[in-house]
Amino acid sequence: MKKIAAIPLVETGFLTNLITDYLTQKLEVKDFYGNFPNLDGFQHQLKHRKKFDSQKRAELVKLLQSQNKFLALSEITKNNIRQLNNENTFTVTTGHQLNLFSGPLYVIYKLLTTINLADELKNKFPENHFVPIYWMATEDHDFEEINHFWVHQQKLQWHKKSGGAVGKYNIDGLDEVFYQLKNLLENNPKGDTILNLFEQSYLKHTNLADANRYLMNALFGKFGLVIIDGNDAGLKNQFKSFLVDELINNTCERTVGLANTELEKKFKVPVNPRAVNLFYLKDGIRERIVFEEENYKILNTDFTFSKDEIRKEVEQFPDRFSPNVLMRPLFQEVVLPNLCYIGGAGELAYWLQLKPYFETQKVDFPILLHRNSVLILTEKQQQKIQKLGLIPGELFLPLTDLINKKVKERSEVEIDFSKERTHLELLFKQLEEIAAKTDKSFIGAVKAQHQKQLNGLNKLEKCLLKAEKRHQETYVLQLTALHQELFPNGILQERIKNISDLLIRNDKTIAELKYQLNPLESTMDIFLLP
After folding, report:
1. Which listed residue, of 27, 149, 200, 324, carries a Cα 20 to 30 Å from 142's Cα?
2. Where are the alpha helices (DSSP H) in 128-250?
3. pTM value surpassing 0.90
4. Cβ distance 67 to 59 under 8 Å?
5. Is 139 within a domain?
């Protein structure tokens, strides 16, 4: 696999203004994060990171060894877990839902960014050790987001009744998905490898958390990735005081609410906090906790707690309380000696709301790093790009803009009327000056005629462009077909395609991507498949 181009992420047009301003370190977002994800930022983060309690380290190591005891861990991963006992060892973390068969490609890129960042930091700061962590979001309950994946442009979906934390779901029905996959790959010589991976991951385990843990270890264990399940009584026991604070004092709502007030002056706010940002987990349910009429109620259930009862419930059963999207980051940073969180634009957006919340809770705010992004081309697609006269940066234009740009470039006549508009502006400026010197009442008529002429010019330009598109119909159709291949439904390829499509062509895809991606470059890397 060969890298053929790298486009700055901020030039792709797929980022919000908030994340664009963050990546370019605009003053408007300086107050919403701590250290920036570059080597100077990491050096500063290391210098000022609070010491992580040695007892918590020992508990973390014991817990990780227990959670992963049935996996065939690589020696690198085993060593990474042991190293967490040492005060000079830190984690870099990403997290994600339990997408079926790893889900879209960007999940793979998140994990590779995390692994590569740990390696990069080891090289730059050899007196320390860095461990890549994958936090399995086993407590999520949005089954519709994770119950499918795409192979050869076919959607394979797991049909199952949903309810409660997804990590606890049994694997009933996944045999049907396996047979769908088998039918798709039956004529592919490398299909057996993919089928075996699916079978070993999903049909040999009893719940989705264990299946996902096996899969991710099979794909990334050789690089030292450590997998952790946050839905653990031992971890939540360390988080009890924060759970009680949230229930009694609503600290998340107060602090994030204030941050949002400042943030929304310039940007769209990603997530609004609730009065209680916790769910309740029990007997196959995961439902919101609300405070009404001096009691805590669990929505869609008959469970009700007084303040004293909810405190007692936290003390005895901390694992029954599940942080939502705004509290989970705090949970991660409390239980891990973490330096950096790696995520996509959507995740980083809500993290940028949380700095005041962390400060109130006296927890170090991590560095936020945007994951690697990748566009992968086949040789056939690359040939089409060259034939159509495209350069890499143009691929990310919206389809209409791309067609208009290329049709104008290829046209034998000048379609861009910018010069005529400039001439018109000068002409009517002179007419307004004349009107002002003779009879000011004519200025309105001059301006109206000015707008009429501009509208006419714009209409003529559109008509000419439309005619030229008809003249270049074959080119426009080829351009449209290529764009739809690379950006299905106008979405980045990495948000649809599954890793199986790449492994079928080249079983070394993940390793080759790992060794060519730079975690500290905010670029969209374009690769050519062999």
Report:
1. 200
2. 174-185, 191-198, 208-220, 233-237, 240-249
3. yes
4. no
5. yes
